[in-house]
Amino acid sequence: MTKYRLSILGQTLDFSLEKLTDDDPIIIDPPPPPQPSTGFKVGANAFPWTPMKLFSSIGMKWARVYCASGWIWRPGGLFIQPMFQAETQEAHGIDDMLLSAKANGVTPLLCIHQCPEWYRPTGRGDGNNDYAPTPAGAKRDDPKSYKDYAGFLFQVAARYGRVKHNDNVLKVDTMPRWSGDIQNEKKTGLGLLEYIEPWNEEKWWKNGTPEQEAYIEPETMAALMSACYDGHEGNLGAGVGIKTADHSMVVVMPGLSDFAFDYASKMGDWFSKNRKDGKWPCDIINYHHYSNTGNKLKQYPPKWNENGACLPADDENFNSVRNIVYGANFAGKKVWITEMGADTVAPSMMLAKTPSKSSEDFQAEIITESLKAYQADGVDAVFVFTAHDDYGAADGGQFETCGLWTSQATGYKPKPSSKAVKSFIEGLK
What we know:
single chain; alpha/beta; 2 domains; 10 helices; 12 strands; 25% helix
């Protein structure tokens, strides 16, 4: 009898196998074939100023909305309606955006990310706040270092979740920006939000650069997640963590910027060693993946070819999806892909380019074929990056023309991909 230990995403299973003779091979069945996802969800990435009517116009019921923490988090608490920054005519504040989503039948996933300049100065004034949200000098792999950030997320969940909290628990910043500015008000239990993603990507491309601090190591990501999920199992005190505010809130793992198996394994090891329950502190496992002809099986970080956006069939690493779904299911989690897509204007590493059709038509094909493949492999939800092109997308920078619609500057004109996604969604019914 030989004992074995199988580890997937940091979750372990001990088992034994018996060989009749030394010559008998040990055969372990491969993972079962994936079961196509039922209730498959299709969404797109957006910003607080993205008109939710774009989503409803094609029957899309899910939106992943980016919200930089500095837009709504100030020293005194939430500065959320109006937003301290990024206030627009389309979205006076996050209240307005969430109410608009509800009116249009759209379920939002609020992706809160970045560290505000006031909380942890970069010293460069470059506006790049992709740094771990810790006080200066704090240990990055210690959940206590994220108590303030997790406390801020508690406030978001307390405001928009289903649970009503006492007034003395709520924190808002009432500081006016100018004479006559609208003051923020305490609100709770609004029931406008069910899904929160407490960070966005590990920023592997910052590793080994002058902006090294913006790279989120696996142990750092694990500590951040544990703090944000439930205040590190309640060890950080009252008023800290999303689940502490509303246990029914669904916490989506910060999307990793590709199929980072080794990275995720190190996160799992941290959870098994540092949490009493040993579990992943999230409800959904989340990855980003852009199909590119430069992708290789289990290659992380990715090495893309110029103008290399491609169909999943031409993406060597797409086969990793099945392993990810199997591993997540083993850990009792579903898998979401919250970024995927292709650009339509050169130059871009992710330009949809093929001799046989226009970039916009090829983008539509890439997106629809990817949705089909993800559904077939058991992924629960996929979000296209992004709903609409950047305002200044004419220069064709990377990810600037991934939209299903053109930019606000050109009136949000539908691309072929928006019509293709509409057809795919109708087919799900």
